[in-house]
Request: fold
Amino acid sequence: MDIQSIYQKTILFAAHKHSEDNQLLPDSQLPYVVHLSNVAMEILIAANNTKEFDINFATQIALLHDTLEDTTTTFDELELEFGTEIAKGVSALTKNNTLPKEERMLDSLNRISFQRKEVWAVKLADRITNLQKPPKSWDSLKKRKYKNEAETILEHLKDANLYLENRLRSKIEEYEQYFD
Ligand code: NI
Reply:
């Protein structure tokens, strides 16, 4: 299948799942699929700037990356529809809700480190797209915590992809403009 067909098949699957309970972007009335297509956009452009990058694999991971965490989708369903490697990649990007909240991100980063570099790249792309103007309700502490988290992600995963490493680094710097 060509990348365009893979993209269409995968975004339809993900959009359908994320709209089952009408999931929206935080602080907006826009459907969640906007976030997924933004992450996939980062991945497609990174692929264009990276040697030896599995664009088909990475695009599917990008579009599916929140299905296990935020929808009723199961690992088995992903495996059946997209194969074991994709299901495992998405699983690594999924926080383990049985752990204390403050341990969840490092646990996920650790599991991502055992996956292919394209899975790391999706985590970088996810945070790049999320470092936008924070919601008005966020206080200074929350914004600083979010920036620190982004720095932890960068530190752990930067070796995956030089292009996305540089994108995330400059996004983190730009984010400081939102501090009070
Ligand atoms: Ni996400």
Remarks:
- The radius of gyration is 16 Å.
- Residues 140-157 form the longest helix (18 residues).
- The domain at 3-178 is CATH 1.10.3210.10 (Hypothetical protein af1432).
- Residues 97 and 104 are 7 Å apart (CA to CA).
